[in-house]
Amino acid sequence: MSKPNVIVIGAGGVGVIAAVSLDFNAKSNVSLVVRSDYGHVKEHGYTIKSCSYGNLDGWRPQTLFGSSEEASNSGTFFDYIVVTTKNIPDGPFQSRVEEVVRPVLESNRKLDSERQSNILLIQNGIDIEKDLFKTFSKQEYNYTALSGVQIVASTKVGRGVIDHIGPENLAVGAFDPSDRNAVEAAKQFISIYLNEGHNMAQFDERVRYSRWKKLLYNAAINTTTALVGLDVPRALEFGVNKQSTEFEIFKPAMREIIAIAAAEGIVLEEKFIDFFTDATRNLIFKPSMCVDMEKGQLMELEAILGNPLRIGKSYGIDAPILSMLYNLLHMLQFKLREQKGLLKFDEQTARIVD
Question: What are the structural domains, with CATH classification, of the chain?
Answer without folding.
Answer: 5-205 (3.40.50.720), 210-339 (1.10.1040.10)
